[in-house]
Amino acid sequence: MFSGIRQEEVQLLMRQLFKNCKGCTAKVELQSMFSELAFNIMVRVITGNRYYGEHVVNLEFRDIIKEILDLSYECNFGDLMPVLQWVDFQEMEKRMLRLQRKTDVFLQDLVDEHRMMRSNSSSSSEDRKKTTINVMLSLQEENPEYYTDEIIKGIILQAATDTSAVTIEWAMALLLNHPEDCTIGNFDIPRGTMLLVNAWAIHRDPKVWVEPTKFKPERLVEGGEEEGYKLIPFGLGRRGCPGAGLEPWVC
């Protein structure tokens, strides 16, 4: 449903690259461009608007995301020395709480804005933007007790862009550094071959998992069989995806 958004954002990125090169060979810093690409695709799917580059409607969302990333990247000495958590001399907790309130207000305004647009247009209107928020509001009308505003805002916050941008960045780096045929794990890979990681097979490998074909969510929770670290989609460690909390339901 949102393939047109992805295509349009990639075209805008290519247009920007050509503009920067000005018809000649030039060095281009792609890391920030990939981040903006992933972010714009995600927020357009969710809200229908862009928040980076040309035709930007609102800069507040971009600033909020920047604050979130800055806090997540910052070294918290309380993680290294738990006793410092009582002092919070870096004011990490205060900053996080302040950012949480700011984010909640912004997301609530987004939800209210889309709800108002829905009420001002007919239910059969084709002009209504197809966004994740609109889809969730439709579900809210059918089941208001479950699809609350808090649930909708929580789902919006689960949208990750950093992992996509980093993946594209590494893929580009590997393509630039290894443009010819290569050998990976005793497999000969011809130039131009498209490779896909078979997560389905990895998650059902009996050499890795105990009873891999059985639904055992307890294997992923604390005190279980401690197999959760083998689950691929969310990454590992401090930089892992916040969606890791959903692991038992993904298994």
Automatic annotation (TrEMBL):
Membrane-crossing residue ranges in chain numbering: none
Keyword ATP-binding (UniProt): no
InterPro entries, per database record: Cyt_P450, Cyt_P450_CS, Cyt_P450_E_grp-I, Cyt_P450_sf, Plant_Cytochrome_P450_Monoox
Annotated binding of heme, by residue: C241
Cofactor needs: heme
Molecular function GO labels: heme binding; iron ion binding; monooxygenase activity; oxidoreductase activity, acting on paired donors, with incorporation or reduction of molecular oxygen
Keywords associated with the record: Heme, Iron, Metal-binding, Monooxygenase, Oxidoreductase
Record flagged with keyword NADP: no
GO cellular component: membrane
Domain of life, per lineage: Eukaryota
PANTHER family assigned: CYTOCHROME P450 82C3-RELATED, CYTOCHROME P450 FAMILY PROTEIN
Family: Belongs to the cytochrome P450 family.
Protein name, UniProt field: Cytochrome P450
Species of provenance: Tetracentron sinense (Spur-leaf)
